[in-house]
Amino acid sequence: MAVPDHVRDPSEIYRQSFATIRAEADLGRFSAPLADVVIRLIHACGMTDLAGDIVASADLVEAGRAALMAGAPVICDVEMVRHGVIARLMPKANPVICLLGDPRVADLATAKATTRSAAQVDLWSEHMAGAVIAIGNAPTALFRLLELIDAGAPRPAVILGLPVGFVGAAESKDELIANPRGVSYLAVRGRRGGSAMASAAVNALAAGLEGHG
Amino acid sequence: MAVPDHVRDPSEIYRQSFATIRAEADLGRFSAPLADVVIRLIHACGMTDLAGDIVASADLVEAGRAALMAGAPVICDVEMVRHGVIARLMPKANPVICLLGDPRVADLATAKATTRSAAQVDLWSEHMAGAVIAIGNAPTALFRLLELIDAGAPRPAVILGLPVGFVGAAESKDELIANPRGVSYLAVRGRRGGSAMASAAVNALAAGLEGHG
Fold this sequence. Notes:
2 copies of one chain form a homodimer. Chain A is an alpha/beta fold. The first copy, chain A, has a single domain (49-207), classed as Rossmann fold, CATH 3.40.50. Helix content of chain A is 46%, strand content 10%. Chain A has helices at 10-24, 32-45, 60-69, 79-84, 105-112, 116-121, 125-128, 139-150, 169-178, 195-207, and strands at 54-56, 74-76, 96-98, 132-135, 158-161, 184-188. In chain A, strands 1-6-5-4-2-3 form a 6-stranded mixed sheet, sandwiched between helices. The longest helix of chain A is centred in the N-terminal third of the chain and has 15 residues, at 10-24. Chains A and B meet through helix 1, helix 2, helix 4, helix 8 and helix 9 of A and helix 1, helix 2, helix 4, helix 8 and helix 9 of B.
């Protein structure tokens, strides 16, 4: 019984991973900067067919980079996303925020008969103008964000809409895609998504394919 | 422009999610306790076909629960996994540990010409006897864990082997499955895996389908 030989060099692991993704994934319909984001999303989940479900506004990368360069905060729906964002890649030591653990959230969720994930979104307002928002878990959080924007909340620069699952994930992303509300966005159609993809999207906006975890 | 009506009640969202998974996923080959773990893994990623790639030792749930009830620590390869573990579900306020940020890791990785993820595993020894280990990111960490067990390191109770990606993920999990080294395990064959699945597996061992995030 012996563990098989394997690649241990981090740079070589990234090189081989990205090469495999470029060889297998259908990236033809993406601009070069957006293709880099797509590659990072695929790298985070191990599925090259994800490319077929990724939709983004044409100015996504430009808008995301500009926001980060302006010092915009990154707002995450769950701590997993926050911890997947690589702080040293953020160009202006941008704050990376998650308010799910805020002590006000539980009462707010009860009062509004919704999830804690959605309730926290009501606390985002003061950080939201020009922000990069990364939703990697809760469809209800994405729905609530869109409701607040429709109601006149401060407009974020970018919405990375990557909630996952069986109830509302596909529908909330369809709404993001169909009515972009003038906010740049990226989404993965359907049930797939998740915190790893959401943080990978933030890291890609900050650094393209450079800067590894 | 109006956000569509959608389910906001957390319990109802879970109920509908689990019902969809039971209706669509092929769970027939799993014992009832293991099926609950599989359902939680599928819930974390939105893919009902994941069931076909899940392999586990027959005693996984029993061994995992016994370890947690005995107060065993949960050791995670990345902070994302650690933050996905729901602390209040742990039956003995079990410590949930990630050593990737330990100040010794960078030098250790350089000295051993490996990833930081793998290097940290050399620091797990003092926590490893009887532990629940959750690897949701790095194939090199799983390979290193198996090497250390072969070299006589303290034996964990359970290995949740869910590294993701294109270089070594499938191979490291194949090695875990082929040579379980007497340690209970769960793995997802192939490239899929990730921190959300890894923390979902820990949460499922602690609480089955009860206890939501």
